[in-house]
Amino acid sequence: xxxxxxxxxxxxxxxxxxxxxxxxxxxxxxxxxxxxxxxxxxxxxxxxxxxxxxxxxxxxxxxxxxxxxxxxxxxxxxxxxxxxxxxxxxxxxxxxxxx
Length: 99
Known about the structure:
65% of the residues lie in helices and 0% in strands. The protein has helices spanning 2-22, 30-45, 56-67, 79-93. The chain has one domain (2-98): ATP synthase alpha/beta chain, C-terminal domain (Lysin, Up-down Bundle). The protein is an all-alpha fold. The protein is elongated.
């Protein structure tokens, strides 16, 4: 968890700094736009229902998926649905994941 969370903290800090800068910039290059989009996806994956918190292994999976670029091809609005489906798939088809 520490390894995965460390990378997440760094990326979110960079995103927050870039997001603040981007408010004043009129045209952003493609790399900056991609970094901002990734930050938005990372922020989205951290959202959890109050009534259904994730188990630690599910949190690690979720963070790992986001910080290693597996969500980069998705729109921000698709992130939560994708993660729910991924967790369902792993529970159903890879029960050893829960151990």
